[in-house]
Specification:
This protein has 23 helices and 13 strands. The protein is of the alpha+beta class.
Amino acid sequence: MDTVPPHIPLTIDTDAGVVRGRGACDDKGPMAAQIFAVEELRQEGKVKKGDVSFLFVVGEEKGGPGMIAANDMNLTWEAGIFGEPTEGKLGKGHKGHLVFELTARGKACHSGYPHLGINAISLLLQALVKLDQVQWPCSDLLGPSTFNMGQIEGGEGYNVVAPDAKALCAVRVAASLPQIKEEITAVVAECPGVEVEFKFEYPETLLDFDFEGFESMPVSYGTDVPRLKGYDVSNTANIQPPIYEAFGQVHLLSWVAIAYTAMNVAMVPLARRLAVLGNLRYQVVVYCLVFVVGSAVSGAAPNINSVIIGRAIQGIGGAGLYQLAIIINTMVTTSTELARTQGLTAVSWAIGLMLGPVIGGAFAENQKATWRWAMYINLPVLAVIIVCNFLALPNMHAPNAVPMMQGLRAIDWAGVVLHVGGFILLCSALIFSGSTWEWSSHSTIIAWVFVGVIYIVYILQQKFCLLTSKERRNIPADILKNRTVILICVATSAVGGCYGIALYYTPLFFAFTKGFDPVDAAVRLLPFIFTFIFFTIITAGIVPVIGRYAPFYVAGGALTIIGGALQAQITATTSESRVMGVSSLIGAGVGCMWQTGVAILMQSVPANRRLDATAMFIMFQLAGVSITLAMAGCIFQNVGFSKLKESLGGSGFSDHDIREALAGLDSKVWSDTDPRVTQVAVGHVADVIANNQYLIVACGIVAFLSGCFMKWEKLDFGRGKQATK
């Protein structure tokens, strides 16, 4: 229902059956026509109760508050008819809208001495003239994009050189909204003293219009259609990663996400060895500074490779900080307190999960801050951590501490190189096979051969202590002979896989199927995070009291199995509430197991092996996250590509278009003029995301079986030793 001015009074000609004024044509006429049409269909028995719904909203010209409020009703629908005055024809689509404000800053002075000032109006006019001369993108269907300077104001009087001026402008977007924004930004950059602020935007909207017996036409105005959610697949472009917009190279996007965790896993054994060298208080500072360097490198990156390198450096810092956090916890707490402090560590982790996507997404969508501040924001946070560390943490050394030079000589450097190289190559092989390299290509074969060779050499080097000794080996594998240690580590690795899939693919599902932007998609992850936090706290409080831990792994494994199996049934039309509810079930299972193992391991190994047990716990946990995500990414890219290629093969899309679509970028697939193309594409993407949920089922089974085979013993956390078996 449009907001219309009152200048034309409402008149009704009952004889002619004509209503004029007060929005009779736009939009009360289409509303009345739809009501009468549905009533006729009902009387003819062609529709029944529940088949058709009406949605009347207000405020289309004022930012769409009515439609935005309607979206909160969690609407789902299969098809829609949007009423607009189109001369009785079906609309092929309508142009998008980009509204922006130009602001010019000058210097005031008396108009008799203009050389002493800077005229802001002159600066503004230069920018407006250049924008008016731009050749804006065109569409075969919608025609050219058009520019309009709608409102200009500025200055203080005829006798004063204007100190400021501004203009409110708009482009009716026929195609390529990102390109138009880039063009505007480039023009303004050439005009000193002028700045641009984008107010609001939405892309062109293409509609289904191929119905026999109807004429069709494109329209140049905008409507509320882009704001309607529930099945608006045209909004899928909202999830395009800003990093790709800056640098391209879609095949490397996966590494931006996984480089951090992969380097975590790669560096854990070395971080374990370095922990015994020197004061832990200063080591925290060193790892914080490493993280600072990584954040700065990613934030200032001139290309995507630099972003990945920065993320890897962050991973090195993160590996050390995580290791030190657990070591310090074990040193300053009693057995009972340790379980609870580890629970608090998990809560802190979960809070980071909750805030990270929201803050990062907000920066990425902000035209001034951009995605780079999602990296830079770490710098002030780490500065606070460094200060708090010096104020709160005493001077302390790890158990079995040794002098620095002696410790450096004792490191198994051959094992470190093989461990880091093997794991990075494994992740690379999983990520690139099928998506970047054909499975039968030389690159894929060579990569997997090298993975096998490196790990064979690594196993032999560790087993026979080549270039090292049994005590100095990079991986303290002998500790895995302890039944409790191996089962805790395996279960923790499995729960890491559950965590990774839920964390990554739940927001991805909402982004693809509901058209949510990164922030809105991340908000839908909150049920998972809240139950994760709740059950982590509950488990951390109960385990030290009852002394038994195996039941929590059995229960946690069962919850993740059930949750994963239910999530594997989702489709593109599955409701938000169902997906969010099931994700909370998975969060509960993960919370039962995520940090529980540290306190158990400290009770189950001698004091001189606790550092080794901690390192194995961290390595298994993070390896579960990164390897499972790499496997899921391989499935998503390969199976998704096959499905889309098969179903869209005759639509003229290149392999690159399909790869871009799977990455959530502004692909030609999502902007196709036939809505049925995007409908099919979204359906296939949702199916592949559902298939990946079986990885949660598999990981849940591993965790469940690990819990079943654990000792059903009772530990005495009060005395710090095992009480009964």
